[in-house]
Amino acid sequence: MPVPVLLVTGFLGAGKTTVVNHLLANADGRRIAAVVNDFGAINIDAQLIAGERDGVVSLANGCICCSLQGDLLRTLSTLLRRDPRPDYIVIETSGVADPADIVRNLMDPVILREAPLETVLCVMDAATPPAALEDALQRSQLRVADIVALSKLDLADEGAGVRMRGVIRAQRVPAVVVDARHGEIPSALLFPASDRAPVPREPGPKRPAEARFETLSWTADRPLSLPHLQQAINKLAPKLARAKGLFETIEQPGRQMVFQFAGGRATLAPADAPAAGVPRARIVFIAELGVLSKAELHELMDGCVASG
């Protein structure tokens, strides 16, 4: 039997991982195989983890999660050979990936027969400025979608969802638009009961690959001052597309925090105990090429480190 594929796309920080986490934690008896860019992004509750083997994390509810390393088609072939086979495969794209290219790969006749692309879901931050949809990458993410899920409604103002629906309609996107509070989307939309033959899609003309974003990492071996960190992030915010990290603060020694910056918003939340042998603070920043220099980043972030 073919294994349907759900492709989850969306820009940096839109909330894709939250959606995938919710799907895996609420599988309702489905064996779901999730293909993600980085295991560290998946935050399944500890009680669901059954173990890891051969690069695949097995979950106690029958689902699995694997990291996308190298060729997508090879990764899918590995999943399809597993016993028992998954009921569904969920692929979470990078926030800077053009999903049209991935759709094109999934139209390979062998993959289409064994793992047909059933649904394309685009996750979009409800507070995204309308002007951002003039960006070619974000338009591509929208236009291949069957479903657009509006995320982070709890963080946006009351009318954000209505405004975003109007903006999406103006783009003439034929997708169904749904609210996705806390990553929850009706499973009947994502996993429709169907025995129809796979339908080839037309992803549109191939665009030349564009190296548009770069990743800069920063680490420290001492706790951070929270007020100084807030000042640094305020200065960096106009230049950042995304940031994520783990650190301990002077104000709460011994307690690790997870830091997220997306859509112009920064959040802090408690994290698990730090692993042995890693820096006390480590943050990854994503910015457009040439917008943020390593020297500027280190100058601002080094000023956040506790002295002594």
Fold topology:
Elements: E1 5-9, H1 16-25, E2 32-36, E3 49-53, E4 56-59, E5 64-67, H2 72-80, E6 88-92, H3 99-106, H4 109-114, E7 117-125, H5 136-143, E8 147-151, H6 160-170, E9 176-179, H7 187-190, E10 213-220, H8 226-236, E11 242-248, E12 256-262, E13 265-270, E14 281-288, H9 294-302
Parallel strand pairs: 1-6, 1-7, 2-5, 2-6, 7-8, 8-9
Antiparallel strand pairs: 3-4, 4-5, 10-14, 11-12, 11-14, 12-13
Account of the protein in words:
The chain is α/β, with parallel strands linked by helices and 308 residues long. The chain folds into 2 domains: 186 residues, P-loop containing nucleotide triphosphate hydrolases (Rossmann fold, 3-Layer(aba) Sandwich); 90 residues, Hypothetical Protein Yjia, Chain: A,domain 2, CATH 3.30.1220. The chain contains 9 helices and 14 strands. It has a 9-stranded mixed β-sheet, sandwiched between helices. A 5-stranded antiparallel β-sheet has the order 10-14-11-12-13, with helices on one face. β7, α5 and β8 form a beta-alpha-beta unit. The longest helix is centred in the middle third of the chain and has 11 residues. The termini are far apart.
